[in-house]
Design goal:
Elements lengths: L2 H9 L3 H13 L3 E2 H7 L10 H4 L2 H18 L6 H4 L6 E5 L4 E2 L8 E8 L2 E5 L2 E5 L3 E5 L5 E5 L4 E7 L1 H6 L12 E4 L4 H16 L4 H20 L4 E2 L9 H11 L6 H7 L4 H12 L3 H19 L4 H8 L4 H12 L3 H14 L1
Parallel strand pairs: 1-3
Antiparallel strand pairs: 2-9, 4-7, 4-9, 5-6, 5-8, 7-10, 10-11
Helix pairs in contact: 8-9
Length: about 350
């Protein structure tokens, strides 16, 4: 595989981007997402005319599609089952230019790497300008919008939540808002992502296993070399750099950490630490810690035969009844039913 040729090929406009560019030049606006989705139903060499895409008939079909999206995804965001192929834990794709994807959230994680040009990333009401070497991790249920410049090459990686939780990344921060690393012109980062893309497109034996291993390697490498460049894409008050150390310590000791113990470790008062969490993440200490524990419990339900009492003990819950109540509130199903459903779906694939 010629890595440099692959990057060059990806930098060129594909058929849909060329269509979008012509549409922009004629009507002064990019294709919207519903137009793009309808166009994907056509063969690459049989796309309709640009005038037809701007016709009342095509617009009516777009409106139907938009209403369907509102009905299906307004509450919980774009779902894993509809936006990541069945039996895939990880998918990589090029962020299309000249196609406007509106602000949205999703139930999976999204990793964004900018190779060239500029990607404008809007989180909340603030737009962040991301340059080459920018590597962003967007947590699930985060409302955001990506807009590439005309000369931008940007790859995005969709990762199922349970797949990400199965990774073993030392000190990988777990936040409810996007975090961004500045990797500059690091060849390892660029080439690894291109190899992941090649493995997916090649679809050869063991490609899924290689993609998973390559992505985990990429994340560990990023934490090893660029942890000190981490910034938060957040439209609220400026986040203090100390929060990364606070959260990492909290997650490393999540089974028995308390707000008092965390405050004492970093020589803060409890009220001040509570304010830091609220200001920085719009969540309380207890909410962040509880969600982290429940995510760990979800993985144990998938991968072990441990009884609920044993799972509760391993994640630091002292009350099994409270654990069941919290789990159902987060995932909409009891732990026992979740395990049964997961095992049934696994046996069907």
């Amino acid at each position: 595989m010629n890595i440099h040729k692959l990057e060059t090929d990806l930098s060129r406009l594909n058929e849909m981007e060329l269509f979008g560019k012509r549409y922009l030049e004629k009507f002064g606006k990019p294709l919207n997402y519903s137009q793009y989705l309808l166009l994907t139903r056509y063969a690459k060499n049989d796309l309709p005319s640009i005038n037809f895409v701007n016709s009342p008939a095509f617009e009516a079909e777009c409106n139907k599609l938009e209403q369907m999206f509102v009905t299906l995804y307004r509450k919980d965001g774009l779902s894993e089952q509809d936006f990541i192929r069945t039996a895939c834990g990880i998918e990589i794709e090029k962020l299309l230019r000249y196609v406007h994807i509106p602000a949205h959230s999703h139930g999976f994680l999204e990793l964004v790497f900018v190779f060239s040009g500029t990607c404008y990333h809007t989180v909340g009401n603030q737009c962040f300008e991301q340059k080459p070497g920018s590597f962003t991790i967007v947590q699930s249920l985060t409302k955001h919008e990506l807009s590439p410049s005309h000369d931008c090459l940007c790859l995005t990686v969709k990762v199922r939540a349970d797949t990400f939780l199965s990774f073993h990344i030392p000190n990988m921060p777990y936040f409810s808002i996007p975090i961004c690393f500045n990797c500059g012109d690091d060849l390892f980062m660029r080439e690894t992502l291109l190899r992941i893309y090649h493995q997916q497109e090649n679809d050869s034996c063991y490609h899924a296993e290689l993609i998973s291993l390559l992505l985990q390697t990429l994340l560990v490498y990023c934490m090893q070399n660029y942890r000190d460049t981490l910034t938060f894409l957040y439209s609220g008050p400026q986040i203090q750099g100390k929060m990364l150390d606070i959260c990492n310590y909290m997650f490393e000791n999540y089974q028995n950490i308390t707000l008092r113990g965390l405050a004492q470790h970093f020589a803060y008062t409890e009220p001040y630490l509570c304010k830091l969490f609220r200001d920085n993440f719009q969540q309380s200490f207890s909410e962040i810690l509880r969600n982290f524990k429940l995510d760990r419990a979800q993985k144990l339900l998938q991968t072990t035969n441990q009884k609920l009492d044993d799972i509760c003990e391993s994640i630091g819950y002292s009350d099994t009844t409270q654990f069941i109540r919290d789990f159902k509130k987060r995932y909409g199903i009891t732990p026992a039913k979740y395990r049964k459903q997961f095992l049934q779906e696994a046996s069907d694939t």
